[in-house]
Specification:
Layout lengths: L1 E3 L8 H8 L5 E9 L1 H7 L7 H15 L5 E4 L2 E5 L3 E7 L5 E6 L5 H17 L13 E6 L22 E4 L10 E9 L5 H17 L2
Parallel strand pairs: 5-7, 7-8
Antiparallel strand pairs: 1-4, 2-9, 3-4, 5-6, 8-9
Helix pairs in contact: 3-5
């Protein structure tokens, strides 16, 4: 479900109008998050994968940061009640596909359905399962082979594209204190660095407190 954002009452109205006309209105930040606690937990027998747990905590932080649920429409801005995840998944044939993960605030339920989605996506072949009609998503990618320090996305020219893009990189460092690079790219008409920083704070809090 969505509701309209009342622009006339929005304290960022002038910033929205300023950035919405930019040819390239997205900005991005790449930061390191501490994943030592999460790795320790997910290495235990019977625990969900590190990716599934990371995805859950990231979606939780995004849903708790209202600006991540804002989306552009031709006639204004809407606010989604809940946003979900769409991610690249490495297939068995070393191509990638897209998989979609419905956010559930209950981690056990989220993990159960996500592990099944991952397993199916790895076995899939053929065309990409693109869902351009949906913007109640965050677009995720994973590059577990490289601890990058910056990231740039391929983009189509679409004046209403406002879906955030998040990329997880290779974790690195001493055991128990590993860091993971996370790139986040968002639409500047809908949020600023302050909101992105709040998202990172919430994500790190979740990583520290898991499970």
């Amino acid at each position: 479900m969505t509701k309209p954002l009342h622009l006339e009452q929005w304290e960022r109205r002038s910033h929205f109008e300023f950035f919405r006309g930019y040819e390239q209105p997205f900005f991005g930040i790449c930061s390191q998050v501490d994943v030592g606690n999460l790795l320790e937990r997910t290495r235990l027998p019977g625990e969900p994968s590190f990716f599934v747990a990371s995805l859950f905590l990231c979606l939780k932080a995004a849903n708790e940061t209202e600006e991540f649920r804002y989306r552009l429409r031709a006639d204004g801005v809407v606010v989604h009640d809940v946003i979900h995840g769409g991610s690249t998944v490495l297939r068995d044939d070393e191509t990638f596909g897209f998989a979609y993960f419905d956010y559930d605030p209950d981690f056990a339920r989220f993990a159960d359905q996500s592990e099944a989605v991952l397993e199916k996506a790895r076995r899939d072949t053929g065309p990409l399962n693109e869902r351009p009609e949906r913007d109640d998503l965050i677009h995720f990618s994973v590059i577990p082979w490289l601890a990058f320090t910056s990231f740039a996305h391929a983009r189509k020219r679409n004046p209403t594209d406002s879906v955030p893009k998040i990329v997880f990189g290779k974790y690195h460092g001493e055991k128990g204190a590993e860091k993971m690079p996370v790139s986040v790219e968002v639409h500047h008409a809908l949020m600023d660095g302050l909101h992105l920083s709040r998202f990172f704070d919430r994500f790190q809090t979740g990583l520290n407190a898991f499970p």
